[in-house]
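Q: A reviewer asked whether we had any structural model of the full assembly, not just the individual parts. We don't, so I'm hoping you can provide one. Inputs are below.
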Amino acid sequence: MILGYDSFRPSTFVDAFRFMYDNQGLMWNKTAEHLVISGEAMGIALLIAIPLGIWLGHLHRGSFLAINLANIGRALPSLAVIAIGLGVFGIGTTNVAFALVILAFPLMLTNAYVGVDGVDPDAIEAARGMGMRPHQIVLKIELPLALPLIFAGIKTAAVYVVATATLGGVVGGGGLGDIIVNQASYFLKGVIAASIAVAALAFAASFAFGLLQWAVTPRGLRRRVEMIELDVSTGVAEAVTT
Amino acid sequence: MIVSAVASAPPVIPNYGGPPGGRQGCIAQNGTFCWDWVKGHWGDILQPRLLEHLEMTAIAVVIGFAIAFAAALLAHRKRWFETPFGVFSAFLYTIPSLALFQLLVPFTGLTMLTIEIGLVGYTLLILFRNILAGLRGVPEDVLEAARGMGLTRRQMLLRVELPLALPAISAGVRIAVVTTISLATVAAYITPLGLGQPIFNGLQTDFTTEFVATGALAVALAIGADTALVAVQWALTPWARARRAT
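A: Here is a predicted structure for the entire assembly that you could use as a starting point for your response.
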């Protein structure tokens, strides 16, 4: 790796946008790769973490596990997890996807747990009084009321996963990180261009989940849908204080 | 002292050759994990890098805390200051770490300073938000009572607001510390310091144990630091425990 030999001028930022324009094929290619790796990881983490979190929250069990998982998950150094994943799975995109799942999972699980666990017991009591069965209570009462926290976790995880997928570049995992770790070929303007693309992608991912949240939230609960959840510190703050 | 270590360019560390006895056994096999390598290189690679890592993290969090604390106090007094500093720190936070360190190199070179500027930048958002949230979370009637007792603003800050904000502040410090530990491994991409160095070195030389073992050590460090900070938080806020007990 050759670093620091490319000089930096204010015009480098302008050059970065010109780089995007001149290398559209490369940019789209790497962005698509980035999206695929992040999407795989998000999909797997979603499928496991959200149902598990809802189930544990519904039973009001495993709070110790759910809360501490979030703290451990946030503490895990992403590069270290990718390195361990590489040792286990070998070169390729699997190790990066594995690391991203490990990093996203606790954020989603904890928020889903805290969201469902914290649903007003009176609401559940009322539902039971109306003759709702347990699965109806989960689907019609607990889930809609827990949606803001569940999606806060998902949006936080999305930003985190897209940002961390960049590190895949150091293990040849593809994505925009490939450009960022290759200053020798793409110069600082390319590094900046790819960084802007990563940041834009992170915002876009969060925003997309914000839209999804808005779409699945029952009309009466829609007024407070936050579109973008920027950082990990606020996303799981509620879980930490509980 | 770390800066001088960089200036004197550390010798190329043998990765394969390893512990007395040379390249044999599990080191030569280059499997996923080789305990012999870890034992053989604890003294010359892992432990020094671990200490460097701790030092980098401590410096970044202390400086970041000083800046964020001053900014949060200012934003607490003058509301208009919250948005510009919040936007600034959020902007820093969105820059991918691998790129930020590279962008700083033309200005500050391949030095410890480059790493610290980057790491401090990433702590600002977390610390600023948590400190400010802590200060703002002090109940109005408590402030009213303090004012009624004739406390000056300075006394209120030191005796009422800061102690009550302590749980939120220490939660912020905890997140900042683990985040910095994570980002400091990435920083080794620029300067061969900290636990990131053996990770990148292992990736380059294709010696699996080096990056797996160091990765595991970094994970252990992060979880250890997180646990230690929980204990500190517990010790610092006895009143929170008393309330829970009743």
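A: Points you may want to mention in the reply: Chain A touches chain B through 49 residues (CB under 8 Å). The longest helix of chain A spans residues 24-59.
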